[in-house]
Design goal:
The complex is a heterodimer of chains A (about 270) and B (about 550). Chain A has four helices and 19 strands. Chain A has about 270 residues and is mainly β. Chain A folds into two domains: about 120 residues, Proliferating Cell Nuclear Antigen, CATH 3.70.10; about 120 residues, Box (Proliferating Cell Nuclear Antigen), CATH 3.70.10. The longest helix of chain A is centred in the middle third of the chain and has 12 residues. The relative contact order of chain A is 0.18. Chain B is α+β, with helices and mostly antiparallel strands and about 550 residues long. Chain B has two domains: about 150 residues, DNA polymerase delta, p66 (Cdc27) subunit, wHTH domain (50s Ribosomal Protein L17, Chain: A); about 350 residues, no CATH class. In chain B, strand 5 and strand 6 form a beta hairpin. In chain B, helix 4 crosses helix 5. Chain B starts with a helix and ends with a strand. The chains are: A mainly beta (about 270), B alpha+beta (about 550). At the A-B interface, strand 10 of A face helix 23 and strand 7 of B.
């Protein structure tokens, strides 16, 4: 028996919007600690890890660990039927092949039940080791989204370089090149507008902007985004989800044989 | 007609042996059973895609009969097989479009919903399974078409005479022995010149297809009989003498281009309007179908077919991949043009599109000139000089590719010697008098003879970075080149074309040389590059790391 009651139902809606473009089918794993998901995109270049801790739910009951395979597009369709202020409850019976989403309007005068079929998905669960990152950039998520969108109009890949000067996003395309440098900036009114760069070592990595742009679909979930870079590891783009968890995107860097890092795809 | 054609083919086409004549002729239910069984065997044992076009050519039945056969087959043996239907009709959207699509069986009902009212449904093909690559759908028929075209020119086969076309013209007489070739070829020209060609009179329309056919035949015959070539040349040269001083460039052109385009069409003939054809044909027809009269439709088809047919195999693909290569774009333009201008100008557009294609090849970067021309031409302006001059300029830089041409010239030497003397004079005259015009003609000519021998081919390769790059490449076979390039020339000899060619060979080589390469080489590279570019975006990048190389499965 599983019953998760999430008062801020819009969070779940946003989570789905954030990942459904990257991953089509995924297993949601429910355990006593929380509601989580880990999935790779079809090309095995990116990985998304979601965690909604049990404490974040108003009511969290999970009798035994359960894994529910869902088509994220279908799930998103159902969640779109929920209002932004609705309370969402996820219910599933042990051994059942369906999951029920219940939406309650804030005034409790409308209650909807949506039952969705589950599917069997071969899950490939990856162990993600804790790692020290060479550089960690925290910046406004909207700014990051803007940068990725802008660069994608010029090139296919972005080189993210962190030096003591700041963080530089650069790309090169058929029409030209683009470089965006952000400096550390902590003197802002609101802490979420700060750009904070922690650097142990300079690092420079190349990524496909296509994936970066799909990560930024998570922007509504959080005002800030944390980008963790290490030369030997996938980049981690993390969006915190209001007190209760996170959504992390891992993206394998592009391998550079030549110096021409931002070389456009010809 | 059917009887005749069949009997004619019998000896030469290996495929004719499949079925005996009476069967073909009568096509009674019982006899078609034999075909149905063969379809069964082909589909389930050989796993071949059997399309109605293939069927039509292979068993020498008309395309409509082939469709019916397939439908019958699906009814009887359809279970366990995949069926691709061809749907055509007006869409519900406004403004409604005429739409033709191929749909697999399960999606048929759904696809029908999109149509306003009734839509026509026929079985396009049956196969054991839906191929992943849609190109596989017409692969077999394409091969078949190629084989048919590779047959000696003396062999009359169903593609050459288009006998299974749904649209038949009683004016057309197939002239098997080729005695009166030249006459036949000349007549249509006179129509083209003297008549007010653009008017939509029934006569004209009727004349057009017949003209095509004749031309086609004449091409066959002429090719067979070298001596006639000489005659043609002469007649041409006289023609030229008349025309050029008289400065009727437009008329001449029209002949040329119409001829050439006809030729192209015929030779490319996967595209032969109704009977042959690839997916692209079907789609190409969409825009013309709405029009009332079927004959012009036929003609305008050929317009598109020329464009389309060249790309036939690819076009579909390209569309699927949402690539607006220049070719594609131009196709679209032409179609629109033909729609907008109505029947009256169709033929003209046809001509131009021919040139356009050529230009297209030369100068992909500037899609505008072709349009301008087509408008010019469609107006039947005698200003043709103006638009062509730019071509000249365009062509000039391409001298480096002379080799190709030279090859040709050497091939033709025996003939060209005779021609050259004759043509030489006229050419000289022309060149001196109206340089631009002759050049323009040259181009036209070249465009005509060259294009038939080339075909666009999708080539997929893995590039140095490991990405899969699919290119659209013009591929021409040398041997074919020779034969075909000769053929059209001779045929064209009724018009100034041949003369120009000879001229170019003897006196004026460089320009000709420029041109053919321009067609052959530059054109291919451009679209190819583009296709490659766009696809590269989606292709898998070897440089992209894999997340699995960082994290281990638990």
């Amino acid at each position: 028996m599983l019953e998760l009651r999430l008062v801020q139902g819009s969070l779940l809606k946003k989570v789905l919007e954030a990942i459904k473009d990257l991953v089509t089918d995924a297993n949601f794993d429910c355990s006593a600690t929380g509601f989580s998901l880990q999935a790779m995109d079809s090309s095995h270049v990116a990985l998304v890890a979601l965690l909604l801790r049990s404490e974040g739910f108003e009511h969290y009951r999970c009798d035994r660990n359960i894994s529910m395979g869902m088509n994220l597009n279908n799930m998103s369709k159902m969640l779109k039927c929920a209002g932004n202020d609705d309370i969402i409850t996820i219910k599933a019976d042990d051994g059942s092949d369906t999951v029920t989403f219940m939406f309650e309007s804030p005034t409790q005068d409308k209650i909807s039940d949506f039952e969705m079929k589950l599917m069997d998905i071969d899950s490939e669960h990856l162990g993600i080791p804790e790692a020290e990152y060479h550089a960690i950039v925290r910046m406004p998520s909207a700014e990051f989204a803007r940068i990725c969108k802008d660069l994608a109009s010029i090139g296919d890949t972005v080189v993210i370089s962190v030096t003591k000067e700041g963080v530089k996003f650069s790309t090169r395309g058929d029409i030209g090149t683009a470089n965006i440098v952000l400096r550390q900036n902590t003197t802002v009114d609101k802490p979420e507008e700060a750009t904070i760069i922690e650097m142990n070592e300079p690092v420079s990595l190349t990524f496909a902007l296509r994936y970066m742009n799909s990560f930024t679909k998570a922007t509504p979930l959080s005002n800030t985004v944390t980008i963790s870079l290490s030369s030997e590891l996938p980049v981690v783009v993390e969006y915190k989800i209001a007190e209760m968890g996170y959504i992390r995107f891992y993206l394998a860097p592009k391998i550079e044989e030549d110096e021409d890092e931002t070389k456009p795809q010809v | 007609m059917a009887g005749k054609s069949v009997s004619f083919v019998e000896g030469k086409s290996p495929k004719a042996d499949f079925k005996t004549l009476p069967k073909i002729r009568t096509m009674s239910q019982i006899e078609t059973l034999g075909i149905l069984e063969e379809i069964q065997a082909l589909v389930s044992d050989k796993l071949q895609v059997v399309s109605y076009k293939w069927l039509s050519r292979n068993f020498l039945v008309s395309s409509n009969v082939a469709k019916r056969l397939l439908a019958e087959f699906v009814e009887k043996h359809g279970s366990g097989l995949e069926v691709v239907y061809s749907l055509s009709g007006w869409l519900k959207n406004t403004p409604s479009n005429y739409h033709i699509q191929l749909v697999s069986g399960p999606k048929l009902a759904e696809a029908k919903q999109e149509y306003d009212g009734n839509c026509r449904v026929h079985v396009y093909s049956v196969q054991a399974c839906i191929p992943k690559d849609p190109a596989a759908l017409w692969n077999t028929e394409f091969i078949q078409a190629e084989e048919l075209f590779k047959q000696p020119t003396t062999a009359d086969n169903c593609l050459r005479d288009n006998r299974f076309c749904g649209i038949l013209t009683s004016f057309v007489k197939r002239n098997v022995n080729g005695t009166s070739v030249r006459v036949a070829a000349v007549q249509p020209k006179s129509v083209g010149i003297s008549g007010p060609p653009k008017h939509n009179s029934a006569q004209n329309n009727a004349a057009l297809p017949s003209q095509q056919n004749k031309v086609q035949q004449s091409s066959l015959k002429v090719a067979q009989q070298p001596p006639s070539v000489v005659k043609d040349v002469k007649s041409n040269s006289t023609d030229i003498g008349v025309h050029d001083p008289a400065s009727k460039p437009s008329a001449d052109k029209e002949q040329i281009s119409s001829l050439s385009s006809n030729k192209k069409k015929d030779q490319n003939d996967k595209s032969s309007t109704a009977s042959g054809g690839s997916l692209a044909n079907l789609w190409g027809r969409a825009s013309t179908k709405p029009k009332p009269s079927c004959v012009p439709a036929d003609d305008s088809d050929s317009i598109q077919n020329r464009n389309v047919s060249a790309d036939a195999q690819i076009c579909a693909r390209e569309a699927v991949e949402d690539e607006n290569s220049d070719d594609g774009a131009q196709d679209v333009n032409f179609r629109r043009a033909s729609n907008g201008e109505g029947n009256r100008k169709r033929r003209v557009v046809f001509d131009f599109s021919d040139e356009d294609e050529y230009e297209d090849a030369v100068n992909l970067a500037s899609p505008d000139p072709p349009k301008g021309k087509s408008s010019f031409d469609s107006e039947q302006n005698s200003k043709t000089l103006v638009p062509k001059i730019p071509n000249l300029i365009v062509d000039e830089p391409k001298k480096d590719e002379i080799k190709v041409k030279e090859e040709k010239t050497t091939n033709r030497e025996p003939k060209s010697s005779s021609k050259s003397t004759i043509g030489g004079h006229s050419s000289l005259v022309k060149v001196e008098n109206q340089l631009p015009e002759t050049d323009a003609k040259d181009k036209v000519i070249d465009a005509a003879p060259n294009s038939p021998k080339r075909r666009k081919v999708m080539k997929t390769r893995i590039d140095d970075r490991g990405r899969e790059v699919t290119e659209v490449v013009w591929e021409g076979e040398e041997t074919e080149v020779k034969v075909e390039s000769d053929m059209p020339r001779k045929v064209g000899s009724g018009t100034p074309n041949a003369d120009n060619n000879t001229v170019t060979n003897t006196n004026n080589r460089p320009p000709a040389a420029k041109k053919s390469p321009a067609l052959g080489n530059t054109a291919p590279s451009n679209p190819g590059g583009k296709a490659g570019n766009k696809k590269a975006g989606n292709a898998k990048d070897p440089k992209q790391g894999n997340i699995l190389s960082f994290f281990k499965r638990v």
